Amino acid sequence: MKLLIGLLVPCTLSACGSVGSPSEPVVEETGSGDSSSARIVAVVTSADQLDQYVGEVITIQGVVSNTKIPTILGVDVGSFDPDLRGQLAQASGLLQKTLVTEEQVAGADSANRGAGTFYRLEEIHSDHEAAARPWRPDPAGQTDRPSADR
Questions:
Q1: Which member of 21, 54, 131, 147 has the greatest number of CB atoms within 10 A?
Q2: Three-state SS at 44
Q3: pLDDT, tens digit, for every residue of 126-142?
Q4: Burial bucket for residue 150 (CB in 10 Å: 0-12, 13-18, 19+)
């Protein structure tokens, strides 16, 4: 069984802001690596739920931040084609968590975001951020998939 696990490495290089390409929901591989046998673990709608899904394939839903590095729920995503900043969107991929210390920032020779905890949603089989895509919540308050209650 193939599993992709997020590494805790400093994100102080400009590659952390790389652009993701638009795609359908990316899903976890199971079995022989055939993507048709894959699944999304959960739909996350609150930043409070992120830590429990690090290293897993999830869908996040919310407003894309209007910042240089676009985020949904504080998670880095690609939002360039189309640019969905300020709009409701969702993205699916492997949730990565990076811890950057003051010491790492002090030793960096390039521009960086500073010390802190950073999340990134990564496309499977790629180093790009998962692409945000337009999303409209169900009027009855239901998401596209079951809630991320664990």
A1: 131
A2: strand
A3: 889 999 999 998 877 65
A4: exposed
Residue 70, judged by CB atoms within 10 A of its CB (0-12, 13-18, 19+), counts as: buried
- Closest to 44 in 3D by CA, of 92, 116, 99, 97: 92
Q: Check: CB of residue 140 under 8 Å from CB of residue 97.
A: no
User: What is the rounded CA–CA span in Å between residue 150 and residue 44?
Assistant: 11
Verdict on whether the full-model pTM lies above 0.85: no
Give residue 107's region: left, alpha or beta (phi > 0; psi -120 to 50): alpha
Domains of the chain: 14-134 (2.40.50)
Residues in the chain: 150
Calculate Rg over the CA atoms of the chain: 15
Kindly state the DSSP code that residue 18 receives in the 8-state scheme.
Answer: P
For 132, the token pair is 């945000």
